Amino acid sequence: MQIKSTQLFVIFILVAIVQVSIPVKMIYQRESVLKYGTVYKFKTQPIDPADPFRGRYVQLHFDANIYKTQETNWKNDEPIYVSFIKDGNGFAQIEDVTKEAPNNETYVLAKVTSYVKWRNELHINYGIERFYMKETKAKAAEIKYIESESDSISHAVYATVYVKAGEAVLDNVFIDDIPIGDVVE
Amino acid sequence: MDSKLENEISELLQNNVITRDVAQNILAYYQSKKAGKPNRLFVIFGVLGAVLVGLGLILILAHNWDQLSKWKKTIFAFSPLFLAQILAGYTILKNKSRTWIESIGTFLFFTIGSSIALVAQIYNISGDLSSYLFTWTVLAIPMIYLMRSNALALLCLVYATYYAVEEGYSLFNTSSEPWWYFVLILAIAPFYLRMLKLNPKTNMTSVFNWLFPLSLVLVLGAFVRTNDELGLLMYVILFGLLYNIGQMPLFNTQKLRRNGYLILGSIGTVVMLLIFSFDVESHDVRILKYNMPEFQICLVLTLMIISVLVYSYFKNRIKVFNPFQYVFVFMISLVLSGFINTTVFAVTVNALVLTLGLFTIKIGTEKRHLGILNYGLSVITALVVCRFFDTDMSFVIRGVLFVCVGSGFFIANYAMLKRQKNNIS
Q: Is the CB of B58 inside 8 Å of chain A's CB atoms?
């Protein structure tokens, strides 16, 4: 059966729409969380790796990547629901980790990285551990962080994360309330 | 006109081998043949240009222009994709030339990747590399059929393999079996089959004849999880399947260098048997569970290889007994019998490699093909070299073996060359 070019073109239009819709859907989901989500400050440490397609980023290690629990029944890569509350300084604290979705809006759908039995530690991956930066700034950001850690004054390094019903969007990273991009300007 | 051809013809003319008329006819024939074909160089440079522009775009966007607002960056993410889509639509509607199809197809492929990458960058989406590559390839595959672009099909095959390798092999034990790879490959396969049917002898089809089996060989190891022994058997069966496919007339009637299935299947089989040929303390198949990916793949591959053999048998294509085609039967029975005695196992495998070597030498001699003959001798040499590392064999025996195989090389090549010389004279 020979397909005419006009028929091919119609199918092509559909495929082209799907090709555009994937990144558009990605944008829509994130924008919705940024607009209606609750913002949390996650304490973190940055290091600087690179991705061949998406550029340089700082890899973030949140305090909330580790949750102490006596429960041992966790499988690697298993989906989990992590609920948060804010402490006195507005930093995120894990309230609970469950295998069923909670009834509130302030939880993130995450994955179990591993469970370290002898330390009772559940290691969690939120899928927001990368903060993409201008290629000239990512390394400088890591150096700045190491410098700020080695002096005697304690610095607050944190990320602002918007959370809404399972979705989490990493918005920015701060050292002492200054965006990390401006710190290394 | 090809200057080499012109030179040859003028030489033949000068030496009165052909007449002036014949020379003119030959030149006219090649000229008319060339007129119908698109210029291959244009296609190659067009694709190369599109690859470079596409990759360059990804790199420029990866710089992360943080002085631009989020929305400006989003426009940058989409504009190359829109441009490529408009060009692709135009190419389809206007039935443009091969150079257009291949170049625009390639450009579109990279803009799909760059748009997803830039959105991920703007919104700090971690998403692992493998899922990104998977989405990219899935979105590009329909374009292979819409544009009928060979370059696009090739890129999709390479990226499907990249995805599977990224997903399946990991240093940190966080990898999982890339089952979706098979879906991607099955989605590309009809296009490849169409190429085989319509243009079996083009260079592009030959490239696929190599890359398709090579991709399978690269990815299969990602399914080896707990049972290494079964993993090795899985490769023996895969190479057997490739060899049997390579024996089908579609591939076997072509030049050997165009038959990636046969060459990879043959070399792979020998390498796997050499690995099995060492007399180890124990072959540990351990508990065989039916839900192991290794077991499932072994089963599917065995069914496929049997289907190919049965099909060839009924089509009357199996005329002589070729041990390469049945190695998998020996190996499956040996591995599944649980290796009652490891020495018996090692001796059997060594005998098998020796048989394959001798069989190849026989084929080489019959076909008077120096390449095949020397390959057969190399198989035996490899077997002897492997035995060199087995310390429990006497030095004298090993020495004699080496001398025998070395002399075999001399004698076989000398005899073959002499025979060829006699034939010419």
A: yes
CB-CB under 8 Å, B129 with A53: yes
Nearest to B131 by CA among A74, A54, A20: A54
Nearest to B89 among A9, A22, A171 (CB): A9
In angstroms, the separation between the Cα of residue B362 and the nearest Cα of chain A is: 47
Instruction: Record the tokens describing residue B141, joined without a space.
Output: 């595959």
H or E element that contains B260: helix B260-276
Structure tokens at A58: 């700082």
Provide the domain limits for residue A30.
Answer: 1-36
Range of the domain at B320: 226-425
Q: What is the DSSP letter of B254?
A: S
Question: Distance (Å, rounded) from C-alpha B383 to C-alpha B377?
Answer: 10
Chain B, 61 to 80: residues with Cβ < 8 Å from chain A are 61-66, 74, 77-78
Question: Distance (Å, rounded) from C-alpha B284 to C-alpha B286?
Answer: 5
Number of domains making up chain B: 2
**A171 within 8 A of A34, measured Cβ to Cβ:** yes
Report, in angstroms and rounded to the nearest whole number, the Rg of chain B calculated over CA atoms: 27
Residues from chain B that touch A11, judged by Cβ atoms under 8 A, are: 142, 146
A52 and A66 assigned to the same domain: yes
* ipTM (interface predicted TM): 0.77
Quick check: A55 contacting B, CB < 8 Å?
Answer: yes
pLDDT digits (tens, 9 = 90+) for B207-265: 999 999 999 999 998 888 777 778 888 999 999 999 999 988 888 888 888 899 999 99
pLDDT: is B170 or B25 the higher one?
A: B25
- Are A130 and B127 spatial neighbours (Cβ–Cβ below 8 Å)? no
CA neighbor of B227 nearest in space, from B288, B164, B268, B301: B288
How is residue A83 written in tokens?
A: 């609920």
A93 plus A152 within the same structural domain: yes
Number of domains in chain A: 2
Report phi then psi at B311, rounded to 5.
-60, -50
Cβ atoms of B26 and B19 closer than 8 Å? no
The pLDDT tens digits of the residues spanning B271-307 come to 999 988 876 665 555 556 667 788 888 899 999 999 9
Alpha-helical regions (H) of B289-388: 293-314, 327-336, 342-367, 370-388
Tell me whether residue B166 is in a domain.
no
- Enclosing H/E stretch for B110: helix B98-122
Task: Give the residue from A26, A53, A128, A182 with the most B CB atoms within 10 Å of its CB, the best one to mutate.
Answer: A53
pLDDT of residue B214: 95
* Cβ within 8 Å, pair B64-A76: no
